[in-house]
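## Example record

The block below lists the input lines for one assembly entry, exactly as stored, with component labels intact.
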Amino acid sequence: MEKLIQLSLSGIANGAIYALVALGFVLIFKSSDVINFAQGELLMIGAYLTYMTVQQIGLFWPIGVVIAVILAAVVGVLIEQLVLRPLIGEPAISVIMVTIGLSSVLRAIVGAIWGITPLPAPQFLPRDPVNILGATVGMDKLLAIGLALLLFGILTVFFRTSSEGIAMRAVADDQQAALSMGISIKRVWAVAWAIAAVTAAAGGILLMSIFGGVSGTIAHVGLLVFPVVILGGLDSIPGAVVGGIIIGLIEAFAGGYLPPELGMGHVTPFIVLVLILLVRPYGLFGQKLIERV
Amino acid sequence: MGLMLGGFTALQHRLTKEDPLMLELNNIEVIYNDVVLVLKGLSLKVDEGQIVALLGSNGAGKSTTLKAISGLLKPENGAVTDGEVRFLGQPIHKKDAPTIVKTGIFQVMEGRRVFEHLTIAENLQAGAYTQKDPALTLYHDMEMVFNYFPRLRERRTQKAGFLSGGEQQMLAIGRALMAHPKLIMLDEPSLGLAPLMVEEIFRIIKRINKEHGTTILLVEQNARLALEAADHAYIMENGRIVLDGKPADLKDNADVREFYLGMNEVGGRKSYREVKHYKRRKRWLS
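Predicted structure tokens for the full assembly:
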């Protein structure tokens, strides 16, 4: 029983982080139809920027985190303006190839600046074990869940009430109609990339703190975005949240209950991906859009 | 003294009564994909406070004309290659759509195009996107829209995708009002709607024009209704204006009667049984 609770909590914590990263992916896809294979690298950049501000420069950690997140948003907007804007009107496959290339370039840049050996992460989240129903979980994991929930809450309010948020949903619904009422689509894309970079950075900071270190491999979490968004539906924000948590739980249970030498924890999310594509390709909450590619 | 007074009143007259010309298209040419010539030197004028109808058959270039004004050609690979569009004296044919909306032109696109996954209130809020301080005026403006379209008030929290076609058209017009435009361009507001609903929508369009003073440029296939509502009408064919005038005069034009109003030369409504497969004249210009 304790094992179940323990696995559930750490699964939900990881899942909340996946959901944060997937959320950015969904936002970019919804507003601009770009499938962003560099989402994991945005997470990595967020983590390394925090390493820079907190560890290297030595800022008090809340200030360091805020500055890192702002810098990450700037990086997101720059990527959109310099890399993706010139590709408007190009076929989807070219855009996908460019984001794959972009992910390699970003890794190389990070490697050139901070090196490729793992670095010790600044420890600012409390890691004291907490006892819940007999199971012990690190405080940092609970904080990860709480922070993810807070971010989802803020984004929900943003999308429901603010003029900019409603404009983003309008663009996702009907680009030309949105343009006809004076909504600047380029601006919406820039905002989407900024938010995607911020949520990915938040995920990166949490992961770095939980792992206790940062290295280029942190970007591999980006691959888990695909099981998450395929399960939840490529164009669904609630789907990203639900999908993230389900994938986190599946990963934790498969890793915890199946023989560890099989390494099933890392494989099951992708088995789920294949199954979902076979059974329900538009995911749990996605729009049924039939398209020949 | 009398002369001076006369000069003064003339000056005052000129100051208060401004030039009524609001929108002017001069010989514009529109090309899609660098090859397809759709508008071939089209000119038209819209005076302030009027309802102007633009009629014509399918493919005449009516929607293209509206998009050339509102700056929506670019996403479709079209461009104004010659001539100019002036709004309140300023050339606007090189500006992008958001700038044009801010100067006061709002196009209600063909097929309603409401945001189906947004609620009615959110659709209206999206329409107010260009307003400088929407938080202050949003409530008041929504009330103004609900006054014209009371049906929308009851369903304000519902998703727009669940509305009927007529209600969606109302929402599309309401969304335009939220931007406080000086000129609303309506592209086929009657498309696919039941006759009763069409009548209601036309009544409201006339009310908006009268009470709000909003100028309206109306593209329609339903020539009878459009001519009833309009102060001035243009007829397009094949990328050109072929005829224009007061609706009353156009209604008496034999060609208009036969092609657009479906009447025979005697004046009675033609029965479909008697429709013969020939046209009085094949083209307006030939």
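Residues 41 and 107 of chain A are 7 Å apart (CA to CA). Chain A touches chain B through 19 residues (CB under 8 Å).
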